Amino acid sequence: MVRSSTLFPVLAAVLSLLHHRIHAQVDGTFDPTFVQGTGFAGDVYTIARQADGKLLIAGDELSLYNGTQVPAVVRLGADGALDTSFDAGDGPDGRVHRIAVQADGRILVGGTFFNFDGVPSRRLVRLMPNGSVDGTFAIGTAANDWVDDLVIQPDGRILVAGHFDQFNGVNVGGIVRLMADGSIDPSFNTGTGAEAEVNAIALRTDGRMVLGGYFSSFNGLTRNKVVQLNANGSVDTDFDPGAGGGSGVSIRAVAIAADGRVLCGGDLFTWAGATANGLVRLNTDGSRDMGFDASATTQYGVLDAIIQSDGHILFCGAQGVERVTSTGADDPTFDTGSGFFGGLQVVVDLEALPDGRVLAGGQFDDYDGHAVGSIVRLTSADVGVPEHDSSTLRVWPDPSDGVVRLSATGAGTTHSVQILDMSGQVVEPMRLIRDGDELRLPSTPGAYIVEVHTAEGDVTRLRVIRE
Questions:
Q1: In which domain, by residue range, is 456 found?
Q2: pTM of the prediction?
């Protein structure tokens, strides 16, 4: 996944209140339980979730978050509240395109900057978990131009991609692999590498990797906008995209499906002479997968893409956020309402959360009529269900002062019920109740999920508001 190097100007801060009533709707509905308030003044380019659920956010000229002054790298709680225990000082003196979190909690930040909190850091820096600069990360003069993507391998080594052709004085051609201490990994040899920028890296489970970008050759071999490398950096000649994207095309997002096929998104009108309209899928040998046709989508400038567990594909760009099925057809169950407005109305990055909800960041003021300030969380069918007929199953009253009742078909019917918060965590453990019995919600006001398990094994999730 990747952030473009030619991004967007500063946004004005948005001053409006959120509408707090939840309705169970189709995927893509605005999620008011993410408490961003007025959001960011500035542009969000990258979102990374830590193992503890906290969210690292960075971008360009971020100066305020919900009215509080912040640098261009901040951390939020899982609920969207500013985490004041994270202090990046003055932050970077340029844009941040990508954040990646190591297993030990230290944070890699890449972009266009020369300094981070006053410390010389040419386009790459590592932060301690509290936001301070990690002085043990020995990258020397680092990249001689911007960094676009960062991927941490399972062994802790770090893949860095971008517009640079040197790293710490060594010719690398848009891609380099670093050891955990920041030194260049000598076992990774790409030869002359890419002759133009590398925007995106997707790592396979066997250590091979797919790169996308603006390049037309890699280490002297023709590879139009996409190449697959072996774990040692050599070109995998069994993967050949042929004519690929041609001139003027740039791949900005790469994702690998469970079956090994490769999804590429970017500034695509065509691929190998046929219509692509922003997305193309390649077979494991690099040939175009003709079973995937996204020509019905409304945008060609794709900046990020996520393959969901069911094969559906979320992607974003100049036309907001869309979802298509595994064949590329429009997915009518995903609805963004009136969509994104304000600024350039561009969505740059998506972050899929474990409960199925999705964070979107970019340059926008408004989502479906709600003032959000460059970041918004969208609901998913994994949290809640469509509206149920009142004669079958419901909880009432909604909103509630803390006590609700379950109404189900059949007097005396017994169900197993537990209560979850909106991140999917259990806050009230499972217990048996009968139809009409009382359920007590947690004391903290907000939105909760009543999860009902029937004797037949069916599971239903119902949202309820605790006032």
A1: 393-466
A2: 0.78
